[in-house]
């Protein structure tokens, strides 16, 4: 079985991290290691990670790309899996990842993300996010789409071989947003990007704050502007951090 290192970037994630780590402790088989990479949390995030007996790393600089690269540098597994602190995964996660990357034609994979909240499942937004995995690369990078490009986002639990990750340069630390999409564009040079036919559950906290219509409009706006070449720094202003 492949050795899978799960990397979780955190910043003030006390509300979500505990249940996520409990979910990861129930994996069968277990992950090779779980690394929580904190960017300077001011709540109980660090204490929760320490109590869960996972590897805790701290970064002098905060930012998802920076923190995920920090985790990947410290990882000792042959596969790296990037997980948001508010995402729940199936208990056979490791088996699914290993089986997917057993195909040498596949360089990277991710899951179908279902957005859920208290007493609600965001079916329509989840459907749009699923379709976006396909239509975004087809619209903006059709030559790469037919080579296997799919556009994955952070809540889809991306995973790839650690060697491929670093040969592609890892995440671009200058990108405050869309760092996963940028990585997909680099990893497709190594092989196909595969959307696994399995589900993970992510928090709807951003949609709950914005409302479904506003959230959909922002997702579309950011996606299309990114596809047309707008800078990630410009796009970040529309994507506030919500905990």
Automatic annotation (TrEMBL):
Protein name: 4,4'-diaponeurosporenoate glycosyltransferase
Family (UniProt): Belongs to the glycosyltransferase 2 family. CrtQ subfamily.
Protein's UniProt keywords contain Membrane: yes
NCBIfam families: glyco_like_mftF
Alphabetized InterPro entries for the sequence: Glyco_trans_2-like, Nucleotide-diphossugar_trans, Trfase_2_rSAM/seldom_assoc
GO cellular component labels: plasma membrane
Domain Glycosyltransferase 2-like: from-to ranges: 5-135
Compartments reported by the entry: Cell membrane
Annotated PANTHER family: GLYCOSYLTRANSFERASE (PTHR43646), GLYCOSYLTRANSFERASE 2-LIKE DOMAIN-CONTAINING PROTEIN (PTHR43646:SF2)
Pathway: Carotenoid biosynthesis; staphyloxanthin biosynthesis; staphyloxanthin from farnesyl diphosphate: step 4/5
An example molecular function term from Gene Ontology annotations: glycosyltransferase activity
Protein purpose: Catalyzes the glycosylation of 4,4'-diaponeurosporenoate, i.e. the esterification of glucose at the C1'' position with the carboxyl group of 4,4'-diaponeurosporenic acid, to form glycosyl-4,4'-diaponeurosporenoate. This is a step in the biosynthesis of staphyloxanthin, an orange pigment present in most staphylococci strains.
Keywords linked to the UniProt accession: Cell membrane, Glycosyltransferase, Membrane, Transferase, Transmembrane, Transmembrane helix
Species of origin: Aerosakkonema funiforme FACHB-1375
Transmembrane regions listed in the UniProt entry: 218-235
Keyword Cell membrane recorded: yes
Pfam families reported for this sequence: Glycos_transf_2 (PF00535)
Source taxon at top rank: Bacteria
